[in-house]
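Onboarding guide, step 5: your first structure request.
Type a short instruction followed by the sequence, for example:

Predict the 3D structure of this protein.
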Amino acid sequence: MSFAGGDPIQLQVASAGLRALSEDLVGDALALTAQGRSAAALAGDGTVASLVETALAAVGGAVLATSALVSGLSQGATTAGDQLQRATGGGR
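The system replies with structure tokens like these:
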């Protein structure tokens, strides 16, 4: 197997950016859930309220799932950077 290059420091930078994005997405998912509850409370009609709350909870769930995916990418970048550092003594 040949070494094609790479920079463990850049992988760590990318990992930190992905980690921050993941944390932001968690906050967004929680905000969506809270907004769903607020909108449902203001809807007046029970059926509409339930639909609004369910829809925003589903969107919040999708955002939360995206956060988990981004977190996994962050961990992967960290692992790749660590392995590259060990294998090459620093990369490039």
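Each response can be followed by summary notes, for example: The two ends are 16 Å apart (CA to CA).
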